[in-house]
Design goal:
There is one protein chain. Helix content is 47%, strand content 14%. It is an alpha/beta fold. The strands form 2 sheets. It has an 8-stranded parallel barrel with strand order 1-4-5-6-7-8-9-10, surrounded by 6 helices. The longest helix has 20 residues. It is globular, with a radius of gyration of 18 Å.
């Protein structure tokens, strides 16, 4: 697989403390209908820190079952423990996932040599194509440009990176350092256009949970180098993309939005909580502007 196109960092719906299987199927079907390339279950947006190991594996299994070969399933199986990441990745491979997203080890703040060895060990223990995930705002460190290039050279199944550091300059640096066939994807909806102008080939999106067709169109326009039309679409939907990331910490606004659209319930797991009254009014105001309320 090429890791090119639009991927949804899909939310994990809950009901009375358990995974809401029916709602999850509804969400997956909505993504298929919206034309996305694939879904990424159990990432940050899927509230992965609050799922235990068995729940994590079950969400990936359900994603594969419900996708039914219609779209790719890139399982979020990263961890700050290499052993845990390998276990989750092997389970995802056995379940039939088509790829894996590996977040940069968080909290323990390894050196770049540690980051390299972490990913190398994972790559050696799976046949799945691997997308690295650099998100320093959550991990505390980034996957260095040199480290990314070193991994691309050393591990044939490490073929992509989701870049969520918010820097166009870093995209330029990655493009210069990496092989032409190594895929760079935006990890921030509002930065999709500038990132793709500079060489990214896709998006791992939060907004696609509620506007999959729109974001898929934006990415395809960029892939077609129709940047005038892409810029117009970006301008139209920027307030929504920005609101979903600024009203509260992700994934609280996007799950609240999906709930307001009737796609799932509004339930979170602690320490995440729902929007307060002021935030909810702000979110519903934005959704109403785009005629997204149920």
């Amino acid at each position: 697989m090429s890791f090119k196109g639009t991927y949804t960092a899909i939310i994990t719906p809950f009901h009375e403390g358990k995974i809401d299987v029916a709602a999850f199927k509804k969400l997956v079907d909505f993504q298929v209908a919206g034309g996305v390339t694939g879904i990424v279950p159990v990432g940050t947006t899927g509230e992965s820190p609050t799922l235990d190991m068995e729940e994590h594996k079950e969400v990936v299994r359900l994603a594969v079952e419900f996708a039914a070969g219609r779209i790719e399933v890139v399982a979020g199986t990263g961890a700050n423990s290499t052993k845990e990441a390998i276990e989750l990745t092997q389970a995802a491979e056995a379940a039939g996932a088509t790829g894996t997203l590996q977040v940069c080890p968080y909290y323990n703040k390894p050196s770049q040599e540690g980051v390299f060895q972490h990913y190398k060990a994972i790559a050696e223990n799976t046949n799945l194509p691997i997308m690295l995930y650099s998100v320093p705002g959550r991990s505390g460190i980034e996957i260095g440009v040199d480290t990314t290039a070193r991994l691309a050279a050393a591990c044939k199944n490490i073929t992509a990176i989701k870049e969520a550091g918010g820097s166009v300059e870093r995209i330029n640096q990655l493009v210069q350092a990496l092989p032409a066939d190594f895929a760079i994807l935006s990890g921030d909806d509002p930065l999709t256009l500038p990132f793709m102008i500079c060489g990214a080939v896709g998006l791992v999106s939060v907004a696609t949970n509620i506007i999959p067709a729109v974001m898929s169109q934006l990415v395809q326009l960029c892939l077609d180098a129709d940047y005038t039309a892409a810029a117009a679409l970006h301008k139209k939907y920027y307030p929504l993309m920005r609101g979903l990331m600024s009203i509260d910490v992700n994934p609280v606004p996007i799950k609240a939005a999906a709930s307001a659209m009737g796609l799932c319930g509004p339930e979170f797991r602690l320490p995440l909580v729902g929007l307060d009254e002021k935030q909810n009014i702000a979110l519903r105001s934005i959704l109403s502007q785009y005629q997204l309320l149920a």
